[in-house]
């Protein structure tokens, strides 16, 4: 099959979109547009500005077309990426400065636009803020498109791949990924990139396997080279041998039959072999994700990240707007419960363009965020609480506060909640008087005062994403130390043990809504420790349910007891992995 006698080379990257592909490589080189520079005669200057206007209009039409196609084929969330692109075209500063530079210098408009946009891209990419750095990417992408239109150049090669190919690129912009020929792209491999880049989001929604972070692979391969892309383990194998091909062929078959088994358990109850039912809930960020939660038979929403209603908008959504969003989710899930988390802004989720509310910080993860922000901006907090309470009249709502560090914040937040209730009562607006209130346990100080916090709320939900980050002092978004981010660290197990015991002593249920909950390797450990419910991204529900139906709770408890006696994260991980593998049939 492999026509090349070259030796097999394995390149390790980061798994970004699941799946396995085998085929020939297409190396995509994104050439910067070459911009000619010349003087424009004074009498032609009006035409030059008109030419610029026309290029902006054409670019807007192209982006709107891509946006509509993405919305139709992939979904509204992915299409929203292109709203940011359209906003670039309306940027007064960028357009105005280009025209002013043209008027002052008389240089052709491409040169002026190129200079101004490059300056902006440079300035944005130097800012120590992930959101703004992403805006630099948007700006670069749109600027290339405007320049191509000014120069009358055609669209990129990705939209017309001649044959089925594995696309290897140093970077892929959102426009690139949107114009990617879906029928012909077997897999995406990107030199740079993170798991959360736009290209990866699009690849995942298209169910195209993707591996990112393979450094300079584009420089080591050629068009037509053969490769396997393993989007499960984040590996690219160049010139695979016959035995590797055979091994991957078998894996692919196994994965397919396992996917079929997952589909079968989707409708069945989450119940262990010894008859213990387990509550499986869904995490959502946007209203329309409720559809997926229901498609995967979630028994409720365990985490509704409401900050996404605020992020990406230029103004704060007001009470009525929030109410409509919350009510839609609550009604869609009724009678199942919906845990609505109050704003978790700041840290990795700042509010763009609101530097008055979120001043720049040196250490935003430990800074002015979540409940700290809400308690200082009580008008914003109360407005959100009113909107949530109003939605509570339409189904089963529970309220949850993020990043609580101890009882004092809990008491203060509950006082604001009572004020919000009083305001609604005065207005004669109905709400659930008995609405339950929970604390997220994601800061070590909250975990270690769980016995005290339990007196101030009705339930706990452990945010393992942040709890691990703070317990182990490992920045959860820093690639360089990602290998040290260990969910099986004994410190986490001991912390969970304490939280669960203290909560249960006071009859409080404890759920987990961090990523650990949706990982079938860790779910048995959490359940064995006594966690009452697991909340996860909807797509993970079948895999976790499959395992629950294949294990007994007695075995999970024994697993947890054995893990509690172990000393190293690796040893505990191996134990959990063996537990999982012994129960999951991949035949
Ligand atoms: C967590 O920290 O585990 C969590 C669920 O919250 P987020 O990921 O939104 O910070
Ligand atoms: Mg968190």
Quick one: CATH class of the domain at 251-275 and 454-460 and 492-587? Alpha Beta
Provide the spatial order of strands within the biggest beta sheet.
1-8-7-3-4-5-6-2
The CATH architecture of the domain at 251-275 and 454-460 and 492-587 can be given as Alpha-Beta Barrel
Sheet with the most strands?
8 strands, mixed
Q: Report helical residue fraction.
A: 40-55%
Helices, by number, come to 23
Class computed from helices, strands and strand pairing: alpha/beta
Span from first to last CA? 25 Å
**Radius of gyration from the alpha-carbon trace, in angstroms:** 26 Å
Global morphology: globular
Q: Spans with pLDDT under 50 lasting ≥5 residues?
A: none
Small ligands present? phosphoenolpyruvate, magnesium ion
Classified in CATH, the superfamily of the domain at 251-275 and 454-460 and 492-587 is: Phosphoenolpyruvate-binding domains
Mean pLDDT rating:
88
State which percent range the strand residues make up.
5-15%
Could you tell me the CATH topology label of the domain at 251-275 and 454-460 and 492-587: TIM Barrel
Extended strand count: 16
List the helices and strands and how they pair.
Elements: E1 9-12, E2 14-17, E3 20-28, H1 45-73, H2 76-79, H3 81-89, H4 92-105, H5 109-125, H6 130-150, E4 165-169, H7 174-179, E5 185-190, H8 198-205, E6 210-212, H9 217-220, E7 226-230, E8 235-238, H10 242-265, E9 279-284, H11 290-295, E10 301-305, H12 319-333, E11 337-341, H13 370-376, H14 378-391, E12 396-401, H15 407-427, E13 436-441, H16 444-447, H17 450-453, E14 459-462, H18 464-472, H19 490-505, E15 510-512, H20 523-529, E16 533-536, H21 541-550, H22 553-564, H23 569-583
Parallel strand pairs: 3-4, 4-5, 5-6, 9-10, 9-16, 10-11, 11-12, 12-13, 13-14, 14-15, 15-16
Antiparallel strand pairs: 1-8, 2-6, 3-7, 7-8
The structure holds phosphoenolpyruvate and magnesium ion.
Phosphoenolpyruvate is lined by residues 303, 305, 344, 442, 463-466, 513-514.
């Amino acid at each position: 099959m492999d026509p090349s006698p070259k030796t097999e080379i394995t390149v390790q990257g980061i798994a970004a979109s699941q799946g396995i592909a085998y085929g020939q490589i297409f190396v995509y080189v994104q050439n910067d547009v070459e911009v000619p520079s010349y003087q424009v005669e004074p009498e032609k200057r009006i035409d030059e500005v008109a030419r610029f206007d026309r290029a902006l209009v054409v670019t807007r039409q192209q982006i709107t077309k891509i946006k509509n196609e993405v919305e139709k084929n992939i979904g509204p969330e992915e299409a929203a990426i292109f709203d940011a692109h359209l906003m670039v075209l309306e940027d007064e500063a960028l357009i105005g400065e280009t025209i002013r530079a043209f008027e002052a210098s008389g240089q052709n408009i491409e040169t002026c636009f190129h200079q101004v946009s490059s300056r902006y891209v440079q300035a944005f990419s130097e800012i120590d803020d992930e959101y703004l750095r992403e805006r630099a990417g948007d700006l670069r992408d749109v600027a290339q498109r405007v320049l191509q239109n000014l120069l009358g150049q055609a669209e990129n090669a990705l939209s017309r791949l001649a044959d089925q190919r594995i696309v290897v690129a140093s970077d892929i912009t959102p426009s690139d990924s949107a114009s990617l020929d879906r029928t012909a792209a077997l897999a995406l491999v990107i030199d740079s990139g993170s798991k959360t880049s736009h290209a990866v989001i699009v690849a995942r929604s298209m169910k195209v396997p993707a591996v990112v972070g393979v450094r300079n692979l584009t420089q080591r391969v050629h068009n037509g080279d053969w490769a396997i892309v393993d989007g499960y383990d984040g590996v690219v194998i160049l010139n695979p041998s016959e035995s590797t091909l055979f091994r991957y062929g078998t894996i692919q078959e196994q994965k397919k039959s396992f996917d079929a088994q997952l589909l079968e358990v989707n409708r069945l109850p989450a119940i262990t072999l010894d008859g213990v039912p387990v509550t499986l809930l869904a995490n959502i960020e946007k209203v329309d994700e409720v559809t997926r939660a229901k498609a995967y038979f979630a028994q409720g929403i365990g985490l509704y990240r409401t900050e996404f209603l605020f992020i990406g908008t230029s103004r704060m959504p007001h009470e009525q707007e929030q109410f409509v969003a919350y009510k839609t989710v609550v009604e869609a899930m009724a009678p199942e419960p919906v845990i609505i988390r109050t704003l978790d802004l700041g840290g990795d989720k700042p509010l763009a363009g609101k530097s008055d509310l979120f001043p720049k910080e040196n250490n935003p993860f430990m800074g002015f965020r979540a409940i700290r922000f809400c308690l200082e901006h009580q008008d914003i907090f109360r407005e959100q609480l009113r909107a949530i309470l109003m939605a509570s009249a339409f189904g089963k709502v529970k309220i949850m506060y993020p990043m609580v560090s101890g009882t004092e914040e809990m008491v203060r937040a509950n006082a604001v909640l009572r004020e919000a209730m009083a305001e609604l009562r005065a207005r004669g607006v109905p709400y659930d008087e008995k609405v339950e209130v929970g604390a997220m346990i994601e800061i070590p100080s909250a975990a270690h005062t769980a016995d005290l916090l339990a007196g101030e709320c009705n339930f706990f939900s452990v945010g393992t994403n942040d709890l691990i980050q703070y317990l182990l002092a490992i920045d959860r978004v820093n690639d360089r130390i990602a290998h040290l981010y260990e969910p099986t660290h004994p410190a986490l197990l001991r912390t969970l043990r304490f939280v669960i015991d203290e909560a249960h002593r006071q009859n409080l249920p404890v759920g987990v809504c961090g990523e650990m909950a949706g990982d079938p390797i860790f779910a048995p450990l959490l359940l064995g420790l006594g966690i009452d419910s697991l909340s996860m991204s909807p797509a993970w529900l079948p895999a976790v349910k499959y395992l629950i139906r294949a294990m007994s709770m007695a075995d999970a408890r024994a697993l947890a007891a054995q893990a509690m006696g172990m000393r190293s994260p690796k040893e505990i991980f191996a134990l959990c992995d063996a537990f999982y593998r012994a129960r999951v049939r991949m035949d």
